[in-house]
Amino acid sequence: MYGGLWRILPGPAWFRALFLLVLALALVWVCFEWAFPWLSEYVPINDNTVEAHP
After folding, report:
1. Cβ pair 16, 31 in contact under 8 A
2. Are 27 and 20 in contact (CB under 8 A)?
3. How far apart are the C-alpha atoms of 9 and 16, rounded to whole Å?
């Protein structure tokens, strides 16, 4: 997969590396901005399973 991305991008190697870095950072940003908040509604990570005893 990475080799295929590397071959289809135009330009010299430094430009490809910079473009892939920007693409990866954009993907991480999209995940934190939209994907993870949407997913958190369906994952009960804050539900307590252990009850406190008085």
Report:
1. no
2. no
3. 6
> Taking the C-alpha atoms of 27, 37, 52 and 54 in order, what is their torsion angle to the nearest 10 degrees?
140
In 3D, which of 29, 27, 9, 30 has the Cα closest to residue 19? 9
Give the tokens for residue 21. 């870095």
| 1-53 pLDDT tens trace | 778 888 899 999 999 999 999 999 999 999 999 999 898 888 877 766 677 77
Q: Are 31 and 21 in contact (CB under 8 A)?
A: no
Could you tell me where the beta strands, DSSP code E, fall in 1-54?
none
What is the distance between the alpha carbons of residues 12 and 33, in angstroms, rounded to a whole number?
31
Distance CA 39, CA 32 (A): 10
